[in-house]
Design goal:
Shape: globular
Strand content: 15-25%
Radius of gyration: 27 Å
Number of helices: 19
Helix content: 25-40%
Structural class: alpha/beta
Distance between the termini: 67 Å
Low-confidence stretches: 23-37
Mean pLDDT: 91
Length: 621
């Protein structure tokens, strides 16, 4: 018998390798046992090396604003989970711009995760590069997607196109996109719609050219037939492929796509609860008046005759200086010296409306000249406008709108430092209130921005006149916007200048009749920027989670929520199907209502809430 001491070196090497493997397996097994089970929801999968915090923050904020439960997990931690722990995660997000490289181990685990019933949302350039940052010959997860989408070997950089985004009408309903952001795509006669912009000639989006027929529900494509978004089955699970750089777009003031696909993935693929972004879960509109100069004041009497002042409250913003186009033209309202104008502002404030500043003292002169480099010259215009209004309403201003939408970053900083918590914005078109990503160096603690809504290139009555926009079309769009916020339980902003209403009095009257009826039935509310901003800031303090209910064998969840101040007016929207039972309130003070879409649980008071709930389990396609 050969003694241990006499073993050949190669035998010792094998023994050492086997022992090392056993130790590693034991460590990973023990680590997976000690790792807490993930909360039910979706996971944003991040690389092990530190990604761009700006991009990660964009996802974090989008989830919070959308009311979606989303935790973050490193790739190695996800791989280290056992199958039962991974099964508790309803969906995994592989983000663009952040996770371009994935290890073969992660790719294998993701494929098995989906095959066994999980849901994966794969974005644009995720899993398209090797560890050195070079494009792969074939995308790592091509088999999961179902079409070829990385054609670098053949096309080089030409594999990335920049062109129109086309969708069938059903996609707008799926994604919850407000009326007007898409217009008919007339080139094909297919009935599909094309994404538009407000203030720009064309809306073009970067995407990978794809090859092959998508084996699932096609949600968006390019004019060349490339798949831009689609949902498909794979094994027992689902794959959502979004061939758009949603992260990149979000940090460049076009966050609609990140927010919309996030809500779709949560609601229609994962069937999970969400925290409503409006008080009591009741949708509504912010009506933002821009009163630019003295010639607008007489039209407020017309608005009253039509019926505007019987509803509200609204966000009404004034440019207050003596001039409009240039110094000395005397076309401004000169609020400081105009008793009639002061009476108008005081009366509108007394009716419960929120008064705000519309730029800096001389509407057109300020709008056409202010830029990123002349803060010292134009800051006094902001100060004068603010002071004029505060002298009349006797309280600090909290709202702002930029003349012609021109708002350099220093203006946003000035607003924050002077107590303004909400402002109108022409970026992030068709979104609800959001923390806008304008300055990468300071993305938090910013006022809430309220993106404008538009029907193509028309967002206001006077723009409708310039674009030969008839009364029936204006009426249809305004009423569609109202119906949208009611059905979606969300808020959007519409704006106008009082003189423009003169040309659409019938459309405005019909619209107000609709909003009055829906308000009377409790389905609709008017909101102000300030009111919603304060609610949303209070909502940000709410923490909540959904975990499997101990001892339950049917997939029942326990939702627990806490707010250190109060949960009052916070609503949870819970999807249902024919199997889902009525949620059970097990702690806290809340109102439970059945809606066409599911259940709405609204806290009435208190700091804590607990709900036991059986969510739907079926996946949609």
């Amino acid at each position: 018998m050969i003694k241990v001491q006499q073993w050949p070196k190669w035998v010792w090497l094998v023994v050492i390798l086997v022992l090392a493997l056993l130790v590693s397996l034991g460590w990973h097994w023990q680590r997976s046992r000690n790792m807490p089970a993930p909360a039910v929801g979706m996971v944003l999968l991040l690389p092990d090396n530190a990604p761009s915090q700006k991009y990660v923050l964009a996802w974090q904020d989008a989830a919070a604003e959308s009311g979606v439960l989303m935790s973050q997990m490193r790739a190695s931690d996800f791989v280290g989970l056992d199958a039962a722990q991974r099964a508790q995660i309803r969906g995994v997000v592989l983000p663009d711009s952040i996770h371009r490289y994935i290890s073969p181990a992660l790719g294998s685990v993701l494929e098995e995760y989906v095959r066994q019933g999980g849901a994966l949302w794969l974005n644009y350039d995720a899993a398209t590069e090797n560890a050195e940052g070079r494009f792969l010959e074939r995308a790592e997860l091509t088999r999961l997607v179902g079409v070829e989408y990385l054609l670098f070997q053949e096309r080089g950089k030409g594999m990335i196109h920049n062109d129109a985004l086309l969708v069938p009408p059903s996609t707008l309903q799926d994604l919850g996109i407000a009326p007007g952001r898409f217009q008919p795509y007339t080139a094909s006669g297919s009935g599909w719609l094309q994404a538009t912009t407000y203030g720009y000639d064309n809306a073009a989006f970067s995407y990978f050219e794809t090859r092959g027929r998508f084996p699932g529900k096609l949600m968006a494509e390019g004019r060349d037939g490339s798949v831009l978004a689609g949902l498909r089955s794979y094994g027992k699970g689902k794959v959502l492929f979004v061939n758009l750089p949603v992260t990149y777009l979000a940090v460049r003031t076009d966050g609609l796509w990140l927010h919309s696909f996030l809500a779709f993935f949560n609601r229609q693929v994962l069937h999970l609860p969400r925290l409503s972004a409006v008080p009591d879960g009741i949708g509504g509109l912010v009506m933002n008046w821009h009163v630019d100069a003295a010639n607008a004041l007489p039209y407020i009497d017309m608005l009253e005759k039509i019926g505007f002042l019987k509803q509200g409250p609204y966000s009404i913003h004034f440019t207050t200086g003596p001039d409009t186009n240039r110094p000395g033209d005397h076309l401004g309202m000169d609020l400081a010296n105009n008793a009639k104008a002061q009476a108008v502002v005081s009366r509108l404030k007394g009716m419960g409306n929120e008064i705000g500043a519309h730029g800096g003292w001389a509407h057109n002169y300020f709008a056409f000249n202010v830029n990123e480099h002349n803060a010292a010259e134009w800051t006094p215009y902001l100060e004068h406008n603010k002071q004029d209004l505060e002298n009349v309403i006797h309280q600090p201003l909290t709202e702002y709108s930029a003349p012609n939408g021109n708002q350099p970053s220093w203006v946003t900083d000035w607003l924050r430092k002077h107590g303004v918590i909400a402002y109108y914005q022409v970026a992030n078109l068709s979104m609800g209130p959001t923390r806008s990503y304008v300055d990468p160096a300071n993305m938090h603690d910013r006022p809430w921005s309220f993106p404008v809504s538009a029907d193509g290139s028309v967002a206001s009555f006077e723009e409708g006149v310039r674009n030969d926009y008839g009364q029936p079309r204006m009426q249809a769009w305004l009423q569609a916007m109202t119906r949208f916020v009611v059905d979606q339980g969300e808020a959007r902003l519409v704006y106008f200048h009082p003189p423009g209403v003169y040309f659409y009095q019938n459309a405005a009257a019909s619209w107000l009749a609709q909003t009055a009826s829906l308000h009377a039935s409790g389905q609709f509310r008017w909101y102000t920027m300030t009111g919603l901003a304060r609610f949303l800031s209070q909502r940000e303090l709410t923490t909540w989670q959904a975990r499997p209910l101990a001892g339950a064998t049917d997939g029942r969840l326990r939702i627990q929520a806490h707010n250190p101040q109060s949960l009052a007016e916070q609503s949870w929207l819970l999807p249902k199907d024919s199997v889902t039972g009525r949620p059970l309130l097990t702690a806290g003070d809340a109102r439970l209502e059945e809606t066409p879409q599911g259940w709405r649980v609204t806290a009435r008071s208190g700091k804590d809430l607990q709900i036991d709930y059986l969510p739907p389990t079926g996946n949609s396609q």
